[in-house]
Amino acid sequence: MIDEALRTAVKQAWENPERETDVKALMTEVATDVYKFQLFDVEHIADLRNMLEQAWDAGIPLRPPYGIVLNRRGAMLDRRSEGYLAAPSFQAFYQQLLDTYMRPISRLLFPEIIGYDSQSFGFSIHYQPTTDASIRQHTDASSVTLNINMNLPDETFEGSELDVLDAASGDAVRFSFTPGSAMLHRGNVPHAAQPITSGQRSNLVLWLYGERGQIPPQGAQRRAIPARDRWVSSSAEQDDFAPF
Ligand SMILES: O=C(O)CCC(=O)C(=O)O
Ligand SMILES: [Fe+2]
């Protein structure tokens, strides 16, 4: 499921944290502190989509994220959330994404999140022109957000770009998702999705934050920390706080 180059680099970093530079080398900084990289292997996205679609088609009552505002064909993914997608195979994958990939990579790019990254939240979103087509500019209540595209290679769409505010220039940087690509940014980076004009777009959105929803204080020091402090399993207790 995970892109081969990333999987290999992350595996090496877990074995020897000093090798995390190879992980960083796979990331492209598209705006200040906003990173893009290939996370899913395009050949396997269909497996994930099938899992989500099956739950949907089975009529299992999944709660859409953000109430009904966004998004009618999306689902809650974290066990903290009522009506989440509890399928064990999906949950194992979701947990691995958070623990093996998202947390250490986020600590590598945004060291100040350490201490504010033990808890999680997740949902899937689905845009199409006739129902949920866009989302206005907002920030997320997360320390860090990982947003991954799940479109299949032949599922093209128009519009639906993600605009992220570049803190340095004050301008929005416009970004189009390609299948399996991911964006990683601090929750406090303002972002918006432009209206989708044709086709559909499916994304997986994961959040990390601290106990009871805490996020790093404004202006938290971004001091360097040793690599070995990132590539460690989180032993923190999981609370029941659900942001939505
Ligand atoms: O359209 C997207 O991919 C971003 C969605 C988003 O920012 C959100 O759901 O919080
Ligand atoms: Fe968001």
TrEMBL record:
Region span, Disordered: 218-244
Entry keywords, A to Z: Iron, Metal-binding, Oxidoreductase, Vitamin C
Domain Fe2OG dioxygenase positions: 117-210
InterPro entries, per database record: Oxoglu/Fe-dep_dioxygenase_dom
Superkingdom to which the source organism belongs: Bacteria
Keyword Protease: no
Family: Belongs to the iron/ascorbate-dependent oxidoreductase family.
PANTHER family: 2-OXOGLUTARATE AND IRON-DEPENDENT OXYGENASE DOMAIN-CONTAINING PROTEIN 2 (PTHR24014:SF4)
Protein's name according to its UniProt entry: 2OG-Fe(II) oxygenase
Organism: Cobetia amphilecti
